[in-house]
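Q: Sequence in, structure out?
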Amino acid sequence: MSSSLKPLKSVAHNVCHQFASTLNYWAGDYGINHFARSVVAAGGSVAVDLLAGTSRPPLAGEGALGVQQLASALPALLVKEGFETNLLSSAVAHYRVHGPLPEPGGNVAYDCRVEFITSGGRSYMVELSELNAP
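A: Exactly. Output:
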């Protein structure tokens, strides 16, 4: 395991940017746009439990797929930074979408806050605002 937990910030940044990649494209649009539409339909913000693969509020359709993608990406992001996959006791990503929603292929602005708590009780938070703003 990595001797420093500072690389957890890199993992958190990667979670925030997971959907914004132009490589994350399916069903005729970018992943972040599918996710954003589901988040807005659910009230505009969502908390994703990255360990359980669930969200509050629950998202429907492509948003639910996005929640599963985020949760399934976390172990690989941890390993890439030299951590064991069981390092975290809690991992939550909070997303808040800023309207208007984009046309397919467009950009949507969002805020993301990722909070990690390690099995040893240490906590880390990364907060990024206005990501992907047009």
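The chain has a mean pLDDT of 89.
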